[in-house]
Amino acid sequence: MNPTVRPLIPEQRHQEILRLLRREGVLSIRSLTDYMSVSHMTVRRDITALEDLGQVVSVQGGVRLAEWTGQAPPREREFRAQLELPRKQAIAELAARFVEDDMVVFLDAGTTCQSVVPYLSERKNLTVVTNDFYVVTSLFAHPHIEAIHTGGAVDPSSASSSGRIAAEAIKGINIDLFFLSTGTWNMSRGVTTPSMDKVEMKLAALEASTSCFLLADSTKFGTVSRFRVAPIDKLDAVITDEQLPQEMQESIRELGVTVHVAGLRKPGLT
Q1: What span, in angstroms and rounded, lies between the C-alpha atoms of 217 and 190?
Q2: What pLDDT is recorded for position 72?
Q3: Cα(39)–Cα(36) distance, rounded to whole angstroms?
Q4: Using the 8-state DSSP alphabet, how is residue 255 labeled?
Q5: CA distance 206 to 82
Q6: What is the pTM of this model?
Q7: HSE of 250 in the Cβ direction (CA atoms, 13 Å)?
Q8: Rounded CA gap, 46 and 50, in Å?
Q9: Residue of 171, 165, 160, 170 whose CA lies nearest to 193
Q10: Is 107 helix (H, G, I), strand (E, B) or coil?
Q11: Strand order through the sheet with 190-193
Q12: pLDDT (tens digit, 9 = 90+) per residue, 116-173?
């Protein structure tokens, strides 16, 4: 419901626009004029003021947050591996705590899921299923962990496989815990991906799993890709970092999804 019982002053409108963008990532001019019951020109002036402060960026027909581009990070593995390392390590370490002995765990393709592997070294009778070639090679250092690769159509840029073959392989496995990765997610669109083949594979893993935890850092929140994997309320939990806005954490919890927050180490501390 539109919260604007009475007209808002410019500063209130600016804060409301920022709040909505943190939830949605990108908004149209039309949606803002309807939501706040103001004119097109008023919204344009508000956006200009926020742009001058470096908080938003205009896009065709709308506006997005300046710090979130609304695009997936670089797909090439060597570039993505260098992004947000402290967040990935913190999320991976926390995720590994939910892995118990005798489990079958699916590690989705991606550098965050790959970062989970070293934290699994003490688990007994563990089976790891993955479509990620780097995850498989990382498991070579842990020969006591059984590794299963899904096969499928190979994507060299992400060093992973997907598609029908991968999906069919997953359907034959009873998975206890699925660590789902993504480069793009928000409240309204859920988890998204740029590839239809990846959707098929991820949905197969979701269907075959008892529990699904999304591993995604705060910098990816508010972004969207072309194809939808699942809405947020289809997840059992989200593991993210402490810089995801508290309001967004509460919105996720209101959907019945548990939020686990990984603390980031302060500079100079070990």
Answers
A1: 14
A2: 45
A3: 9
A4: T
A5: 28
A6: 0.73
A7: 4
A8: 6
A9: 160
A10: strand
A11: 184-186, 190-193, 227-230
A12: 999 999 999 999 999 999 999 999 999 999 999 999 999 888 899 999 999 999 999 9
Cα 250 from Cα 243, distance rounded (Å):
13
The CA distances from residue 62 to 43, 48, 132, in Å, are: 10, 12, 36
Which pair of tokens denotes residue 48?
A: 């200009």
What residues form DSSP beta bridges with 209?
Answer: 175
Which one, of 194, 249, 199, 201, lies nearest residue 221 by Cα?
249
Q: Average pLDDT for residues 42-47, to the nearest whole number? A: 91
CA distances for 229 relative to 17, 128, 202, 232, 256, angstroms: 27, 22, 7, 10, 18
The answer to whether the CB of 93 falls within 8 A of the CB of 245 is: no
pLDDT in tens, 190-227: 999 988 899 999 999 999 999 999 999 888 888 788 89
Pair 42, 4: CB distance under 8 Å: no
